[in-house]
């Protein structure tokens, strides 16, 4: 024995065939009319926005485009999936939160790296270059003054680095205790 389903009952399409005694030569569901008429106005608006003038051929192409778009949209609509459900599903699909595909950190960037005009000076040369202790042993006050003038000129030209941060705030007593 074969059991038939009741799908045929639900497959009845609400079809408008046209005015009485003057039916259309095609079958169109009510939902197709509901989608097609606003789509036609949108297509005509897009044509005007694109710069096409209003005429017979532009309207005919708009009508053909409307039929194609309406057929594509109504192919997704059936008695099991009504128009309201499809619109709600499209709205939820567009507004649902997505998984982030990009990381929050990213690759290391050189945008915060300080670039100096001169190369860094090794530590064993820094002590002589900055002359914190009054110059090399045996140097008098005359050479210290000329060394300070030379250092000021080199610092202004960007050839010598300034005093390191670690040594700026120390007193002479703290330096002597090293």
Structure explained in plain terms:
This protein is about 50% helix and about 0% strand. Strands 1-2 form a two-stranded antiparallel ribbon. It contains eight helices and two strands. It is elongated and about 115 Å long. It is mainly alpha-helical and about 180 residues long.
How is this fold's topology laid out?
Layout: H1 7-10, E1 15-16, E2 28-29, H2 30-49, H3 56-74, H4 83-95, H5 123-130, H6 141-157, H7 165-168, H8 172-176
Helix pairs in contact: 2-3
Quick tags:
178 residues, mainly alpha
Gist of the model:
With 178 residues, this protein is mostly helical. The chain has eight helices and two strands. It has a two-stranded antiparallel sheet.
Report the C-alpha radius of gyration, rounded.
42 Å
What are the segments in which pLDDT stays under 50 over at least 5 consecutive residues?
none
In which order are the strands of the major sheet placed?
1-2
Strand content of the residues, in percent?
Answer: under 5%
Work out the helix count.
8
Taken in chain order, the helices and strands follow as HEEHHHHHHH
Structural class by sheet pairing and helices: mainly alpha
Overall, the morphology is elongated
Quote the distance from N terminus to C terminus.
105 Å
Helix content: 40-55%
Biggest beta-sheet profile: 2 strands, antiparallel
Question: How many beta strands in the DSSP annotation?
Answer: 2
Q: What value does the average pLDDT take?
A: 75
